[in-house]
Amino acid sequence: MYFRKKNLLKCIPAAVLCASISMGSAFAADNSVQTLSELPAAGQTMLTGMLATAAKTAIGSIGTTEEMTKVKEDLAAEEAARKAAEEAAKKAAEEAARKEAEQARLAALQYVPTYGRTVTRSSAYGVTETITANGQAMGNFKLTFYCACSSCSGGYGANTATGTQCVEGRTIAVDPSVIPLGSKVYIEGFGDFIAEDTGGAIKGNKIDIYLSDHDRCYELGVAYADVYRMS
Ligand SMILES: [Zn+2]
Predict the structure, then answer these.
(1) Which of 63, 203, 213, 231 is most solvent-facing, going by the fewest CB within 10 Å?
(2) Which phi and psi (to 5°) does residue 20 adopt?
(3) What one-character DSSP code corresponds to residue 2?
(4) What is the pLDDT of residues 72-86, one digit of tens each?
(5) How many A from CA of 88 to the centre of ligand 1?
(6) How far is CA 51 from CA 8, 44, 200, in A?
(7) Rounded to the nearest whole angstrom, what is the distance from the C-alpha of residue 149 to the centroid of ligand 1?
(8) What is d(CA 175, CA 22) in angstroms, rounded to the nearest whole number?
């Protein structure tokens, strides 16, 4: 058995070593085999087939590696495109939501609110395209704050010049020759108000914003902001 196998191995290229070992029993019966052509026909066919398969596999694996590289690149490009599209859709959705909220806020101004809100300076009240498109730019105003105390209101208390009651988040005092009373006003950084009060010191580009609490008038102090008349 040893010699038979040794003789066979001498004559067959190293590449088919494995094949010959696995096929050992097929040739074991004939110890005179010296070359491939001397193998039985069935053995020749099997070896030729195995060599061809091995070659195909080798060539195929090279092709597959190149293909895999390309597939990986394609996948990376697709992923990048998908992420870009996702990002764009997200931005569009955020923009749409922002505009919708803005429209809702402006629509709410069509009804003079009888409620108020706590006035704070916030970047949420920026000057947006909707504001500039729908409002009349009145210029930059000096903003001050007042409450119903005698120090702030000189005895008028919470009664406005137009006969309404002051409400924080709604009431502002203006110079009526600059901003007509009853106007809906958008103040950058502070939001929407109704021009429904006046004041002895409120002349020209000045707005006094009503707050329900005197201490907060001091806290907010003085500010400057762009103002838009919305209606
Ligand atoms: Zn006060």
Answers:
(1) 63
(2) -65, -35
(3) H
(4) 899 999 999 999 999
(5) 49
(6) 16, 10, 105
(7) 4
(8) 104
pTM: 0.53
Q: Residue 67: what pLDDT? A: 83
Task: State the distance from the centre of ligand 1 to the C-alpha of 109, rounded, in angstroms.
Answer: 27
Segment 125-164, tens digit of pLDDT? 999 999 999 999 999 999 999 999 999 988 888 888 888 8
CA-based nearest residue to 196, from 208, 188, 212: 208
Q: Quote the ligand 1 centre to 162 CA distance (angstroms).
A: 20
Ligand 1 centre and the CA of 216: distance in Å? 9
DSSP 129-174: HHHHHHSEEEEEEEEEEE-SSHHHHTT-TTB-TTSPBP-TTTEEE-
**Per-residue burial over 22-40, b = 16 or more CB atoms within 10 Å of its CB, e = otherwise:** ebeeebeeeeebeeeeebe
